[in-house]
Amino acid sequence: MTGFVIALCAAVGLLIGSFLNVVVWRVPRGESIVSPPSACPRCGHRIRARDNVPVLSWLVLRGRCRDCAAPISARYPLVELATGLGFAGAAWFVGVSWVLPALLYLVAISIALALIDLDVHRLPDAIVLPSYPVALVLLALASLNPGGEADWGAYLRALIGGAAMFVVYLAMVLVYPSGMGLGDVKLAGVLGLYLGWFGWASLAVGWFAAFLLGGVFAVGLLVVGRAGRKSGIPFGPWMLLGAMVGIVFGGALGDWYSSLL
After folding, report:
1. Residue 168, SS3?
2. Distance between CA atoms of residues 117 and 32, nearest Å
3. Which has the closest alpha carbon to 245: 98, 110, 101?
4. Is 69 helix (H, G, I), strand (E, B) or coil?
5. Is the Cβ–Cβ distance between 44 and 139 less than 8 Å?
6. What DSSP assignment string belongs to 192-219?
7. Quick check: helix, strand or coil at residue 114?
8. What integer pLDDT is reported at residue 25 of this predicted model?
9. What pLDDT is attached to residue 102?
10. CA torsion sign, 206 to 75 to 22 to 80?
11. Could you identify which of 4, 123, 192, 254 might form a hypothetical disulfide with 162, taking C-beta atoms 3.0 to 4.6 angstroms apart as the criterion?
12. Of 83, 106, 95, nearest to 4 (Cα)?
């Protein structure tokens, strides 16, 4: 059963990845993600259904538009593939459980927000703010755990984690405004909900990992001369990656640390 769910999530992830490509392009520009249908930006021809199959269509077309032969960025199939793998990984990690929908949603918005932040150095409210009610509802469902034993303690941790990360990030912005933006503050609350739900260790590890990974990346850019001391480096992708590290490895690292005490 678990293998079937992993395969199903992978297939769904490929389809969601195709949609995320639309989200990443249109949301920062304030465009509708529903209409008009996707079209080639060079010749304007609408993308045919048979040319919109995730990953496969790009390979069949050899990365070019069917009508005008304009090159199609390899990022499109890579986003689809990454989303499929992310969905499959989420299903493998939590198995057939009520927390799976919440984790799949997190994977989807993480890919979209990371790419948007890298492209335009912004975390759009159109994605971040609706994630609060969605996360609260899906994590409540996971805590209710229909057919099993409810765990409202996890939900309480989620609320505390979300509030704590939001408040601390807001304080950091107020003290050092050039260090990060309000988009990071809003995203911190969403990630705190997830990290808190998975446990205190996940919250601590995910919180710390964002600064560690982001710091290492920034230092690396400085060393190779790709950035200066005043260069703006998007922090959102590292917050999202740190949250994933906290969710996946937080429990194990917490147990390891406790064994040392």
Report:
1. helix
2. 19
3. 110
4. coil
5. no
6. HHHHHHH-HHHHHHHHHHHHHHHHHHHH
7. helix
8. 94
9. 98
10. negative
11. 192
12. 95
Secondary structure letter of residue 34 according to DSSP: S
CB under 8 Å to 44, separation ≥6 — which residues?
Answer: none
Q: What is the pLDDT of residue 229?
A: 65
123, two tokens: 């975390």
Count helices and strands in the chain by DSSP H and E runs: 9, 0
Q: Which residue has the tokens 């194990």?
A: 252
Question: Which residues of the chain fall short of a pLDDT of 50?
Answer: none
- Count CA atoms within 13 Å of residue 56 on its CB side: 9
Please list the residues that pair with 46 across neighbouring strands: 39
Q: Which tokens sit at 103?
A: 């984790």
E strand spans, the chain? none
φ/ψ (deg, to 5) at 64 = -140, 155
- CA-nearest of 38, 83, 78, 30 to 55 is 78
Assess contact for 114 and 79: CB atoms under 8 A.
no
Which residue type is seen at 153? G
What the block records as the tokens of 218 is 């920034």
Q: 101: closest CA among 142, 143, 53?
A: 142
- Predicted local distance difference test score (pLDDT) of residue 227: 65
CA distance 157 to 169: 18
Q: Which two tokens stand for residue 28?
A: 């920062």
**Direct distance between the N- and C-terminal alpha carbons of the chain, in angstroms, rounded to an integer:** 39
Residue 71, classed as helix, strand or coil, is: strand
What residue type is 212 in one-letter code?
A: L
CA-to-CA separations, 21 to 18, 65, 186, 190, 242, in angstroms, rounded: 5, 16, 23, 22, 23
Count the Cβ atoms, other than its own, within 10 Å of residue 153: 10
